[in-house]
Amino acid sequence: MERKKILFLDVDGTLVDYEGRIQKSAAEAVRLARKRGHRVYICTGRSRAEVYPEIWDIGLDGMIGGNGNYVEDSGQVILHRCLSSDECRRIVDWLHERKLEFYLECNEGLFGSEHFETAGEPVIQMYSRRKGAKDSGLQTVREAFPDMVFGADLYRNDVNKISFILNSYEDYLDAKREFSDLKAGTWGGVGETALFGDLAVKHIDKAYAMDVLLEHLHASAEDTVAFGDAKVDIPMLEHSGTGVAMGNGGEEIRSMADYVTDDVEHDGLWKAFERLGLI
Fold first, then answer.
1. Cβ–Cβ under 8 Å, residues 237 and 260
2. What is the rounded CA–CA span in Å between residue 28 and residue 37?
């Protein structure tokens, strides 16, 4: 009898391209794998509010969100670790003090700071250009984050993480020092080229969330296959039975993966599923 697998898919750059389009071959691969009895979960930095209906419509068993702070299986919430109200207030006040624009990532939605829509536009366009997206120079913040809410109360108790625009790399280093009780990271580039910083609950990552889900499923890590393209996906690949890097991924993840498939835009996920006998 075929041993059923549990598949963990990063979203951006893995399941969808860098313009947010779901790859048809990837969607079909997921459907076929589930028909064969494999379970499929997205494992993403996105909060639940950013997992739009067209992604769920592919057919998924659940998700890991917020880079590990949220776990859902068949509609049941297994884990949700948010920043506390006090932590959120401290971060928001500190960012305002430094005049850094930001947005709160919550399961109920994304909430932008007062000037994020304007300040974020060139940064989002730079991020898209680096990823090779076409027409990225024209993308607005509202196009990149269609459901982002502006003008809402920024002191909340349901925040998964907070992303903020880096005016310089020093902003990230200062955030790391100021919030040593939290997990500070960067994205949109490596080191000095990073475009965003973020702050979240400490000691939580994709591997931690995988363990929570596997315990719930009474399953073993050796029966997992993980797919990703970014540095933040490395703990997920390291923790899985088989780790697959997308061809469009960075050098770090490609060098540690068990297998490197093709780019997201060249049927990379489909080819990996086929090679691994999942479809």
1. no
2. 15
Using CA atoms, how far residue 39 sits from 137, 224, 255, 268, in Å, is: 38, 9, 27, 19
Q: Which helix (H) or strand (E) holds 8?
A: strand 6-9
For every residue of 70-139, DSSP letters joined together read: EEEETTEEEEE-PPPHHHHHHHHHHHHHTT--EEEEETTEEEE-TTHHHHHHHHHHHHHHHTT-TTGGG-
Each residue's pLDDT tens digit, 202-220: 999 999 999 999 999 999 9
Tokens 């003090």 belong to 97
Q: What is the DSSP letter of 53?
A: H
Task: Say if residue 133's pLDDT is above 90.
Answer: no
Q: What is the pTM of this model?
A: 0.88
Question: Are the beta carbons of 36 and 68 closer than 8 angstroms?
Answer: no
Q: How far is it, in rounded angstroms, from Cα 11 to Cα 86?
A: 31
Q: Give phi and psi for 220, each to the nearest 5.
A: -110, 150
User: Residue 222 burial by CB count (10 A; 0-12/13-18/19+): exposed, middle or buried?
Assistant: exposed
9-56: pLDDT as tens digits: 999 999 998 778 898 999 999 999 999 999 999 999 999 999 999 999
CB 7 within 8 A of CB 33: yes
- How does DSSP assign 177-204, residue by residue? HHTTTSEEEEESSSGGG--EEEEE-TT-
